Amino acid sequence: MKWNDNSIIMRLSTKNGKLGKIKSSLFQRLALSTDKKGVLALAHKGHPIQTPEDIIHDPFVLEFTGLEQKKRYKESDLEKAILDNMEKFLLELGRGFAFYGRQYVMPIGGRPFKVDLVFYNCILKCYVLIDLKRDEISHGDIGQMNLYLNYFKNEVCMPDDNPPIGIVLGTRRDEVLMEYALEGITNQLFVARYQLYLPKKEELQAQLDKALNETQNE
Hints:
Blueprint: H1 4-13, H2 26-32, H3 36-45, E1 60-61, H4 75-84, H5 86-93, E2 97-108, E3 111-121, E4 126-132, H6 139-156, E5 165-170, H7 175-182, E6 188-195, H8 201-216
Parallel strand pairs: 1-6, 4-5, 5-6
Antiparallel strand pairs: 2-3, 3-4
Helix pairs in contact: 2-3, 2-8, 6-7
């Protein structure tokens, strides 16, 4: 890796000497990712979307919601904050997304079920369903999203649509529990974390320096 990758990231990540608006929180993604070379490539090429996995960030950074100032908030508060800042959320999701609806009702077996947010990705040509969780993602959340995806495949998707993608977003997840909950599921179903804040500039800089040093030593 060439050293000028560092200056490229700095130009993309700072504005007038401030961290303020970091495109897709590149600083933090680099520091936390196990694929540092892949994240560094984003500085050069942007975020390509070719497969369902390409739209998954871990974590999704939702500092624009302003909810980090609240000690307590409900899932409905998070949903409303995303809706109020839809343009910023679409930027966080990546290329090709269009908002389709909120609290989308699915009548299944005589009962109404609702998924929090529905999008359509014109690059992948598929619906993307997102359920928001206030706390840790549970195995029940996985089963619920799988139900929603089966409904969309049979009742909503057109013949030329690709299978829908489901994302369950929560603040925490148990890796072993998620592994067992997802085993055997054939739908495109993903779990990811979100966080409502970016670390302080000094913390990000330390993480960035460490990540760059690790990448250079590979």
